[in-house]
Amino acid sequence: MARIGVFICQCGKNIESTVDTKKVADEMAELPGVVYSCNYRFMCSAPGQEDVKKAIKKHKLDGVVVAACSPHMHEKTFRRACEAAGVNPYKCEMANIREQCSWVHHDTTKKAGTAKSIDITRMTIERLKKNKPLKKISIPVNKRALVIGGGIAGIQAALDIAEGGREVILVEREPSIGGNMARLSETFPTMDCSQCILTPKMVEAELHDNIKLYTWSEVEKVDGYIGNFTVQIRKKARYVDEELCTGCGDCLVKCPFKAPSEFEMGLATRKVIYTPFPQAVPNIPVIDAARCPKIQKGKCGICEKVCGPGAIDYEQTDQIVTEEVGAIVVATGYQVMPTARFGEYGAGKIKDVITGLHFERLASSAGPTGGEIRRPSDDKVPDSVVFIQCSGSRDEAKGVAYCSKICCMYTAKHTMLYKHKVPDGQAYVFYMDIRAGGKRYEEFTRRAIEKEGAMYLRGRVSRVYERDGKVIVQGADTLSGDQIEIEAEMVVLASAVVSRTGADQLAQKLGISYDRYKFFNEYHPKLKPVETVTGGIFLAGTCMGPMDIPDAVSMGSAVAGKVLGLFSAEEMAREPITASVNTMICNACWDCVVACPYTAIEKEEVRNKKGEIVRVNAKVNDGLCQGCGVCVAACRSKAIDLAGYTDEQVYAAISVF
Amino acid sequence: MEKAVKETDEKLAEEKQPGAAAWEPKIMAFVCNWCTYAGADLAGTSRMEYRPNVRIVKLPCTGRIDPLFIIKAFENGADGVLVSGCHPGDCHYTAGNYHARRRWIGFKSLMEFVGLDMRRLHFSWVSASEAIKWVDLINSITDDIKKLGPFMEYRGLK
User: Fold this and answer.
1) What fold is seen in the domain B2-15+24-157?
2) Which residues contact B5 (CB under 8 A, 6 or more apart)?
3) Which of residues 128-157 of B touch A (CB under 8 A)?
4) What is the pLDDT of residue B19?
5) Residue A382's closest CA among A422, A348, A342?
6) Nearest beta carbon to residue B60 from set A96, A115, A629
7) Measuring CA to CA, which of A233, A497, B3, B32 is 20 to 30 A from A479?
8) Lowest-confidence range among A32-41, A102-111, A620-629?
């Protein structure tokens, strides 16, 4: 017979005001198997926990029910107390009589609350009788990390983990690390040059002994679980031997073929063998195979002829490399909403309607115009520029309800950059609201408006069209109530920050969730902002939502702290809520294998001494199993059960309902 | 055994009393740990109020719920049963709620076929932030079932 102790908490007045805890305790004492019951003012307080421990020893309890708040609140507290007194922590259960009883039933006669508390506690006691003692599972941790994405967030995470003494594998899809930040001219609110602060970090990441860089590479497949991931990385064919190439750049000079530059977003051209930008890390070119006549038709081969070290290799193919890691940091960044979506603003049709990211390239001294603001159609220095904020953002019709967060600030910066470079020019800004929350941010936008002469107009633009070489912007100024028409020479759209194309496919490979915008979901928006629901996989930067550089860098460092914490012990303990198979009943239908979302169930072959297969059955991998129990309900022969939530436990609770 | 039968009979007789105006239905809710259980907790922390007729059995995921649990709940005296978990796409275990939904569709048509009044059996998505939805759901189910009266057909099966 069980020896169960039942402890009813009054939670001050929180429970006691609508539940007669004394009566509940008395009723519970009558139940078979209950050898002790009491009520107390604050069970979770130090004296309350002491009482539990004392009662365990005095009455030789082998199970404990605490009827108090939600188990999400104090289950750990009481399980720890039980463990300290020698009772297996999984022989302690909580009955939730606060959040799900006293707080939602306001009957001060205590009738309804007491009756319901009695039911809840009785069900918990019956369930507890079927609880088995469980032991935490310890799993080894491989102390290497994978960082996906070499933008500023990924670089920061990689550097901090590497500085903490752990190996990092940094995978970048493009030929160079640097991400979107490498495209920016200056950064708000300090106006320091983006490249100047970023490139030293890129070089540091390349040279760090603990960082292994895979550029022009993509994550192909992810298997395993926290502490033990196996990752396959596709190293796309570069057609340049990374060991032999010295980065001299002779091939780039001599290559006779040109293509639009992805890095310059089509504002300039690059060669067919190219590095995306001069400070690329690594400084090793890539051949654009689709456009290379040598690879396509066997004609040309100039780069091979001019390459001193003989690094050009037209025969190179994609390679799959396998890496074993214990943690994964996802930092895949953002892109801006494609201009083609802005038909009403003439985007795609009118050459001089560009996005903010294009403007960054025009303003950048390393950009296609050498830092001079020249409009794309005819290279003229525009004498007026209209900036349209919230292009796509906060616009359900465009499918983006959220605020892109960085546009108010970078538009203010753009007006200043424009004013500094074209002192006679006039900047106009159409805005909905100015959102400048952040250290020195409000001062910055005020400066753009008050000191740098930008004309801010509150209202929406209805139409943009071309007339006599000008771009005509029609809109409303909602503050004055006037309709406005501006003859501009260039229009810059503060296009919405959106998730990367293919973000959903990556999420599916990793087994993490994403929202309707395909931004990755954090575990908890406030308390676990860098974790995902999948153990060992973390998020940094704009892949989880729009944010500015300081936030992305903070997240990179925060993630590094989490990863180093995970790597601080040889083994990690995890909850023993996992499924297991009764192999004697399993009839190998594999319904569970199909149902399992974690590929945690294997087909096990049992062999005799001669090595012949005598039986096949399902087998659960404890490391992979997350304890959802889908397999249990899927099993038609009832061969699988879930520790902590066994059929027996559930039926026991139902039986006294 | 004899005692149990006698008790059940007594219970049945008592509930058939026309004077039992104070009769309150009992509703069993099978909910997932991550969304609906947390949503029900939030109703508490927000000090909302709802009918005291529901008893919750917490499971890790709606995908864990065996349709037999529902039958057993009816056998043990439930007048209504509710299954609730995370919204599609929000499952803590990625896809458990999809399994639950598929199972539910099959189970629902079976129960309709055997003649269960479907006002007694509900399936819903309540997220961790939808305390109001939880409150409204419990209130409306309770009120509906109160009108239907006690559910006796499965009780004798026990």
Assistant:
1) Rossmann fold (3.40.50)
2) none
3) 135
4) 45
5) A422
6) A629
7) A497
8) A620-629
Res. A15: pLDDT tops 90: yes
Domain boundaries, chain B: 2-15+24-157
What three-state secondary structure class fits A177?
A: coil
Q: Which of B44, B64, B67 sits opposite A645 (nearest CB)?
A: B64
- Cβ of B61 and A630 within 8 Å? yes
Stretches where chain B sits below pLDDT 70 are 1-21, 158
What is the sign of the dihedral through the CA atoms of A172, A173, A176 and A180?
negative
CA distance A173 to A152: 14
Q: Do A628 and B92 touch (CB under 8 A)?
A: yes
Can you list the domains of chain A with their CATH numbers? 4-129 (3.40.50), 145-230+324-333+500-574 (3.50.50.60), 237-317 (3.30.70), 337-496 (3.50.50.60), 579-655 (3.30.70.20)
A597–B49: do the CB atoms touch at under 8 Å? no
Give the one of B40, B72, B89 whose C-beta lies nearest to A100's C-beta. B40
List pLDDT tens digits, range A408-462. 999 999 999 999 999 999 999 999 999 999 999 999 999 999 999 999 999 999 9
CA distance B104 to B121: 11
pLDDT for A640-652, tens place per residue?
A: 999 999 999 999 9
Region of A462 on the Ramachandran plot (φ > 0 left; ψ -120 to 50 alpha; else beta): alpha
User: Can you tell me the mean pLDDT for A263-271?
Assistant: 95
Separation in Å, CA of B30 to nearest CA in chain A: 10
User: Which pTM does this prediction carry?
Assistant: 0.78
User: Is some CB atom of chain A closer than 8 A to the CB atom of B101?
Assistant: no
Distance CA A146, CA A150 (A): 11
Q: Check CB contact under 8 Å for A98 and B44.
A: yes
Any residues with CB less than 8 A from the CB of A276 and at least 6 apart, and which? A174, A175, A176, A261, A262, A263, A270
For residue B150 the two structure tokens come to: 């006690």
- At CA A88, angle to CA A87 and CA A91, rounded to 5? 95
Number of A to B CB contacts under 8 A, please give it.
124
Shortest distance between the Cα of A262 and any Cα of chain B, in A, equals 34
| B115 to chain A, closest Cα gap in Å | 23
ipTM exceeding 0.95, yes/no: no
pLDDT for A274 beyond 90: yes
Q: Which residue of A has its CA nearest to B96?
A: A630
B98 in reach of chain A (CB within 8 A): no
Q: What percent of chain A is predicted at pLDDT more than 90?
A: 91
Average pLDDT, chain A: 95
Answer yes or no: do B52 and A116 touch at CB < 8 A: yes
Please report, to the nearest 10 degrees, the dihedral formed by the alpha carbons of residues A186, A191, A193, A194 taken in order: -60
B96 and A105 within 8 Å at the Cβ level: the answer is no
HEC-encoded secondary structure of A324-383:
EECEEEECCCEEECCHHHCHHHCCCCCCCEEEHHHHHHHHCCCCCCCCCCCCCCCCCCCC
- The pLDDT value given to residue A511: 80
Q: Which of residues 562-621 of A touch B (CB under 8 A)?
A: 577, 595, 597-598
Q: Do residue B41 and residue A72 have CB atoms under 8 angstroms apart?
A: yes
Contact between B95 and A107 using a beta-carbon 8 Å cutoff: no
**Model pLDDT for residues A467-520, shown as the tens digit of each residue:** 988 999 999 999 999 999 999 999 999 999 999 999 999 998 998 888 889 999
**A99/B96 CB distance under 8 A:** no
Task: Tell me the pLDDT tens digit for each residue of A574-628.
Answer: 899 999 999 999 999 999 999 998 888 999 999 999 999 999 999 998 878 889 9
B37 touches chain A (CB under 8 A): yes
